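From the shared-data thread, chain only:
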Amino acid sequence: MPTRTGTGSTSSQRRVVLVTRRTRLDDLVQRHHTLGQARFYLEHLGADFGDYLAENEAYLRSLREVVRALEAWGRWQMVDRSLLPNVVFDPTDIVVALGQDGLVANTMKYLQGQPVIGLNPEPERWDGLLLPHRPGDLGALLPEVALGRTATRAVTMAEARLSDGQVLRAVNDLFIGPRTHTSAQYELCFDGRREWQSSSGLIVSTGLGSTAWLRSVVTGSLAIAAAWGHQTATTQAYTPLPWDAGQLVFAVREPFPSRRSQVGLVCGQVDAKHPLEIRSGMPEHGVIFSDGIEADFLRFNAGVSARIGVAATQGCLISSG
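Structure, as tokens:
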């Protein structure tokens, strides 16, 4: 991961770290070894290989534009998303994420409040809630960010702290449960209440995440309740939390009642005074992962406890205005 330094007068300015991601085409070629074999595999399945090529070319075109801006800027470094856990970020770094919303979230959780510029490589393809800027904006944007003259949005993060000392943060949500399609077994303690539960796991959502996975959980639950005759459920409007909310929301997925497991404690708001504590009862395959990245996880097997709360550090997203 070489640091690239330009020759102009900007070389003494703050370092910019560019975070990139592999495209779908990159992943296919890695799996099938050659472009021809990747094409054969997709076309044999009836998929449109041309769409993969178009997406890859759009990303490379955006990447070239970003690199030109960074070379004019001065000090910069390019990092693939897979290497983020090993990167040491300086407090003065400016971070640029070129990719989908998930890349911004996956990057932000490794930072300590450094500003993040989300660039949308293909606005016609990606909605880009966390990608308010285009690659062509970067050259003019960097000096403004360095001088603190841009608008920002604070993003609350969740944090899981295990009894063995491991820590994992999340920008959208944490999933706690089984790695495979089995039941999660755990003891849940919240707000002075304690239950042994069996479920398909639980999610803990931030304000930003409350617009996504949590929303689908709540919407589905209300629809099921309405279908079973609870008509008041259809009139309850779902309201996401603000991105900078000082609390999290947890929801248990598919809780199962039995002689041993209870279902009385299935949702709640977590804040500094009301943390969520979970003790795993899963002999194997128990995990905690964040922001939908299953490869980035903590093992959460029997005997390990987790304390879930609001992270002390907030993310800092450079907004559009």
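Confidence is low (pLDDT under 50) at residues 1-12.
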